[in-house]
Amino acid sequence: MQRPFLLNFILLAAALVLSVAVGAVFVPPDLLARALLARGMGFAAPVEWTKTFEAIVFKIRLPHTALIALSGMALAGSGAAYQGLFRNPLADPYLIGVASGASLGAVMAMSLGWSASSLGMFAIPAAAFIASLLTVAIVYTLAYSGRSTPNTTLILAGVAVSSFTTALTSFLMLRSQGELHRAIAWLMGGGVLSGWPPVWSVLPYVVIGLGALFSMGHALNVLQFGEEQAQQLGLAVGRSRIIIILAASLATAAAIAFSGVIGFIGLIVPHVARILWGSDYRRLIPLSTLGGATVLLLADLFARTVMAPQELPVGMITALAGAPFFLWVLKTTDR
Amino acid sequence: MLEVQSLSVNYGSRQILHEVSLNVARGEILALIGPNGAGKTTLLKTVSGVLRPHKGSICLDGRDLARLSTSQRARMMSVVPQARRLPETFTVWETVLLGRTPYLGWLGRPTEQDRQHIRAALERTDTMELAERRIGELSGGEQQRVLLARALAQDTPVLLMDEPTTHLDLHHQIGLLNLVKELAQEKNLATIMALHDLNLASVYADRVALLVNGKLDGIGAPKDVLTEARLSEVYRLPLHVINHPDLGVPLILPEGQGGRPVA
Q: What phi and psi values does residue A121 have, to the nearest 5 degrees?
């Protein structure tokens, strides 16, 4: 296997183990490994494996870790795709307004009371998806000039669209009682749902979205040379763009619907991957996906432990680290 | 044989090309010349399928290209654009691979055959040793050769070039055009090349097509089209035309001493 992939798999495995092991109760990784192995093979669990460990690991930490990892994958993978689509390294799902669009959709669905039913588990990401498609369509129309997207136009369009959707979200929150306390946590970048149901409902969206993006690597490469050359090279430009927008927005919306508005992962991870391993999108998207899971797991671990027992929203951590990074990228890209 | 028949193109309400008809045989180089704004780039964009003609047709060996999909069309003709604003972080190999786009499956994985085409294109354009370099690090002449390699990898019977020599010094201009001339013969390519430099057009083209204000003003061998009277009028400038000492083709010189544009 190629070295960057191997490295990313090792880092991700380490982050997964840490995320499950560390918390208010420490679960020794070797014990964890033996218990998981035993469970997988159908043996009896090791004697040291208490009922508490069992509950903490299988009911709380594993689903939480899985959801965070899936969200990090979705955000970083789709961030890389948006950057290729906009031909701008600053196109992060958060900065271009897709995230706030998705949260508006999710909050609307919740305010209709859908979350109570098990159908809501699928309806909330669907609503987030539709709303995020609308936002990305608006930002894209405003900012894309045919050849590439100038930084200023992209960010200004993103800011304007997010202010608008955030205002609508706030309005919905003011109008409703009780139900929406989660929305507040969301906008702060926390509010990761717990238990297995959200994992199962986010999984298909992320698999379909990222799977489609993995197949668009070559198309994204061609698009980097501009619309005209892409067409002369034989790419069906319009169709490729639509697939990329649909797939990236699907993955982003699902991640945001269940993990909250988490910014900058989609900016930092692809950017670092591009510096280290080049801008071939056939590699960049899968590498960003793996890296995104690792980085978000570590950010989440930090958020859970730095002020324990108080847990910080993970989006707060990614924003604290990501905003200065963003400014650095802004300063070093000359467009 | 590439045949362009009564092609008219509009941008909004403005007509850019009026009833342009011309053809290019396999193995032949046709140079498109004419003052700025005459419609050279528009003609190339229309032939390559980026712009839709308002009227007229483009046929290759009798097949109407308008009926083909983007990918089928890209197997018929490749385009060498000007080397400007290329995504600098792509390597030369990754760039030339894009020439194989119309042949790749939906996952974009190159087969061994695709790799062979890429290697052949790199060797033919003398860019093999640059394969792992990023295109942002290359000189203008090298970038232009990489774009030519990408077009060769596309393996098409028609080659279109838009001002390929614009940002190159004389050495690289001649080097590139010599290569194009060899390739046109060796691969039997029907080549259309927009050129600003009338002397290069005269030396390298089998025929030249003079476009003026969106109309075809003349087409034929350089000595028939590049005449003193016609060029002086079209370029609004008194010009001398002399014969190349070795090749006998016309060479165009501005008139000395007070030769100013006839404003």
A: -60, -30
